[in-house]
Design a protein that fits this description.
Elements (H helix, E strand, L loop, with lengths): L1 H49 L9 E9 L1 E10 L2 E10 L5 E12 L12 E11 L4 E14 L5 E14 L3 E13 L1
Antiparallel strand pairs: 1-2, 1-8, 2-3, 3-4, 4-5, 5-6, 6-7, 7-8
């Protein structure tokens, strides 16, 4: 009788491992689809925002940021000295994750005089979301930076440091920053 149960127990054991493997794969696929939806949503918002560029004084710029985070940077001038600064990037926090951030920034153009172009100091407030494999971090950002805007060339170079207060899943303070370049349309 014990000999007849042994193959049955092996089949049941094999099926449990197989089901566990399939469930883990489905959870992984579900997480990847969720992250892709957030990235597509963010990209769509950037494209929709850029459709009204003709009404903006200084337009829309897109480029890269290197640091924490590293990825695609976008900036939309809202008029005057105000802009919306965004990024869809890779965060090196933890095991590495997708990060979305957006800041409302004010520029002070008259603080630093340069012979060519403009070099405003900027500061602002915003938020970020980091999608890690096991957690989603939500935090507030306070960026401070310098943005060199070339004269006669549709480029700018920026450097920033950012105080970050993560609010969920737990409270934590962090510092981020980066160096970047954008092309203006």
């Amino acid at each position: 009788m014990g000999e007849k149960l042994t193959p049955l127990l092996l089949i049941i054991s094999f099926n449990e491992e197989y089901v566990t493997l399939i469930l883990n794969y489905l959870i992984f696929i579900k997480r990847e689809i969720k992250l892709k939806k957030y990235f597509i949503l963010f990209s769509t918002l950037v494209i929709i925002s850029s459709s009204s560029l003709l009404a903006q004084d200084k337009g829309f710029g897109i480029g890269i940021i290197i640091g924490e985070p590293t990825g695609v940077s976008g900036k939309l001038w809202l008029g005057g000295d105000n802009a919306l600064d965004m990024a869809a990037a890779w965060s090196f926090k933890g095991d590495g994750s997708i990060l979305l951030q957006a800041d409302y920034v004010w520029h002070k153009f008259n603080l630093i005089n340069v012979s060519s172009g403009k070099l405003p100091l900027y500061f602002g407030i915003g938020g970020r979301v980091i999608f890690e494999s096991n957690d989603t971090y939500i935090g507030a950002r306070v960026p401070v930076g310098l943005d060199y805007i070339f004269s006669g060339t549709p480029l700018d170079i920026f450097v920033e440091i950012v105080a970050i207060l993560d609010l969920a899943p737990s409270t934590d303070f962090d510092i981020g920053g980066g160096l970047g370049i954008r092309f203006w349309f």
